[in-house]
Amino acid sequence: AGVELLHNFKGSYLPKSTTYAGEIEGGIASTYDFRSTRQVFEGILNYMKTFNNIHDLNVMLGYSYEKYSAESRSANGKGFSTDLFEWNNLGAASIKGVSSSKTENLLASFFGRVNYTFNDKYLATVTVRRDGSSRFGANNHWGTFPSGSLAWRASEEDFVKNWGVFSNLKVRAGYGVTGNERIGDYASYALVSTNHVTLDGSNNMPGTHLNQSSPENASLKWETTTEYNVGFDMGFFNNRLSVTLDGYWKKTKDLLLKVSLPYYTGFTSGQQNVGEISNRGFELDITSHNLTGDFVWDTKFNLALNRNKVLDLGSSGDIRITSSKPMGTVSENDYAIVREGEPLGSLYGWKYIGVLQEGESYAAQPNSKPGDPKFEDVNNDGKIDADDRTIIGNANPDLIFGLTNNFAWKGFDLSIFFQGSIGNDLLNMTRMNLEWKRTTDALNRWTPSNKNTDIPRNGFYYSQYGGYVNDHFIEDASFLRLKNLTLAYAFPQSLLKKTNFFTSARVYLQGQNLLTWTGFTGLDPEVATNVYRAQYPASRQFTLGIDVSF
Q1: What is the rounded end-to-end Cα distance, in angstroms, of the chain?
Q2: How many CB atoms lie within 10 A of CB 226?
Q3: What contacts 214, CB < 8 A, 6 or more positions away?
Q4: What are the residues whose beta carbons fall under 8 Å from the beta carbon of 91, sequence distance 6 or more?
Q5: What pairs with residue 350 in β-bridges?
Q6: Per-residue pLDDT of the chain (550 residues; tens, 9 = 90+)
Q7: Left if phi > 0, otherwise alpha if psi is -120 to 50, otherwise beta: which for 86?
Q8: In angstroms, rounded to a whole number, what is the distance separating the alpha carbons of residues 383 and 361?
């Protein structure tokens, strides 16, 4: 059982001596207060028994409960007669804005698992969860999620031992259903918001007008994913070489998505269970003990590839995604699309086919001038408009991989970890906003004397014909990164015993995100979305430390 309490307060004041706050606002103060509570309880009962030395049974029953609640309050004021109060006396100023909020959610779960092993060769597991979430409709709070797996330690069979190939061989197969409830706390409710009403063009009366801000969806329920997997664990040369292979297929249905709604509903979008997607993939892990003895060298390599596809979107059709964090003034267009038959992460926009040259005409853009960009007339209707947008990139990598080498010699150890991604696209929204005049690329823009370029002329804006979201700004974000390097030294026991104090001591120097090789022009190709918006790059960190035991 546990309780987590969090209190975060922030007060700020811009004094009258600052240019903006003093000359225009007369001192600006703001306060923000946030409090949250998380309550957790979990109870587990285990029963273990071995029968006749060949039947092993393990039964587990459990219950968990988690409740989260949070409140926030903020206020802003301006026009102070003195700087002495700072943010501690907002009543001495003119209040600019006041807001408050409260939210809470509850998740309760019952679960059970049975593990059975026969003769240490055949293994079976059955698990059932019953989860209830406050985030869904009144009749759909609860969901049931079963799973099961079978395994065979084939290397324990005499006929496999006679092959003399495997020092370990295990075959696995599994099936399972999992649920997702990661949405807003009140997504199934008809929420109400307040508006400020202006009377006679002068008086603002806050809170006098209530309106429904989101539609009710009492049928909102769990998003579920069904997965099948098959795996092999193999050991060779007395387990000096270990290989794990896993293949899987997942199908997710009742996706929790915000979808566009018809105008007659009075709402622009609402949370619904819509459609199905599939994921299938392959994972490989290899561990090799290359050298043993005084000098030790181990290598670990893993790679994974995944392919996903949107199978069904119901009656909603394409779902277009617009940037929630615009970059300057160039992000007015949809940049991604969810479409049946295509992968999630599909980037969406116009196809950029070059720069119009002198003496060249382009019927689809009749008013274009030399130096203007050309967009492909995808639907062949003789004009460039919104209907010419198409899929222009895929943010999903072809594969991801990692490589670790560990070395050890006479108390010294060295670990080198590389990770990488191949084949993923990123929409460089930062370049969109800067290329036209704020980066050195602008020096290579089209001019009558510089025609061998794909950057339009000075003063041209992409949105005159197509839009900023086009594949001129789609970049290959493949990368290889030296993620971690650690050099350490463990002091010998003979030395530690003389101290009569330490039982172990190890000093280490560690570096993270040391080097990155990529063709991506932004600061960091490793981002969690399909759009790059000048995020802070992964910081390069160095750590010097010592681990000691007494």
Answers
A1: 31
A2: 16
A3: 187, 189, 190, 191, 267, 270, 271
A4: none
A5: 470
A6: 999 999 999 999 999 888 777 667 788 999 999 999 999 999 999 999 999 999 999 999 999 999 999 999 999 999 888 889 999 999 898 888 899 999 999 999 999 999 999 999 999 999 999 999 999 988 899 999 999 999 999 999 999 999 999 999 999 999 999 999 999 899 999 888 877 666 555 555 555 678 888 899 999 999 999 999 999 999 999 999 999 999 999 999 999 988 878 777 888 888 889 889 999 999 999 999 999 999 999 999 999 999 999 999 887 788 888 765 555 555 556 889 989 999 988 999 999 999 999 989 899 998 889 999 999 999 999 999 999 999 999 999 999 999 999 999 999 999 999 999 999 999 998 888 787 666 777 888 899 999 999 888 887 777 777 788 999 999 999 999 999 999 999 999 888 888 888 889 999 999 999 999 999 998 899 987 888 887 788 899 999 999 999 8
A7: left
A8: 13
Residues 6+ apart with CB under 8 A from 280: 247, 248, 249, 250, 306, 307, 308
Contacts of 279 (CB under 8 A, 6+ apart): 248, 249, 250, 251, 252, 306, 307, 308
Cα gap 288→167, rounded to integer Å: 14
CA separation for the pair 304, 168 (Å, rounded): 23
pTM across the whole model: 0.82
